[in-house]
Amino acid sequence: MHSHPPRVAVFGGDARYCRNPVPKLKGYPSGKHGGRGRVRSLLRAIRSRAFDVVLVLVRWVGHAEHDAVRAACLAANVPCCAVAGGWSTARRQLARLGLTVTGGTR
Questions:
Q1: Where are the domains of the chain?
Q2: pLDDT score at 65
Q3: Helices marked H in 1-106 — which ranges?
Q4: Among residues 23, 45, 89, 95, which one has the fewest Cβ atoms lying within 10 Å of its Cβ?
Q5: Alpha-carbon span 62 to 94, nearest angstrom
Q6: What is the pTM of this model?
């Protein structure tokens, strides 16, 4: 897939899983978890191709936000992966992408 770890955005929940800096990983909280302005920031970053892949933690994201992120990814040709489980499922997905994340519950 990638010879180097990809630049990954994780969208959903309160983004506390990204508080400990992990190179190439940036968390964006969902609107209902206080991230209203962060959603717009994520959409701008996707449009500018700042990420190689976007993971959406659908358990903690509203339909409208998920649709907006998915549409931005499609327009920018950036893969968008919906993660239906919780943070442990997202951590496994990140490990497949070559990123190791410890801590966090979501």
A1: 8-96
A2: 92
A3: 36-47, 63-76, 87-96
A4: 23
A5: 22
A6: 0.83
